[in-house]
Design a protein that fits this description.
The chain has 71 residues and is of the alpha/beta class. It has one helix spanning 13-26, and strands at residues 8-12, 32-35, 47-48, 62-68. The protein has one helix and four strands, in the order βαβββ. The termini are far apart. The mean pLDDT is 91.
Amino acid sequence: STCNSIETLIVHKSIAKEFLAQLENQAAGRIEFRAHRDTKKFFSSAKLAKEKDFKTEFGDERLAVLVVDST
């Protein structure tokens, strides 16, 4: 993995459906997505994230994803 790479992605709900569909499509087979329980519905193949996933430096092709409803 690359130093300074992204480990957690936070997406606003107003763009989540379209953005995450495109992201999953572009990264198909290359990134393992770990989604919060309320975020998993935006993915077809994401694993359910654990709380520790949002605090972990994976060191490989995994990405923890969270959709938020704040400004």
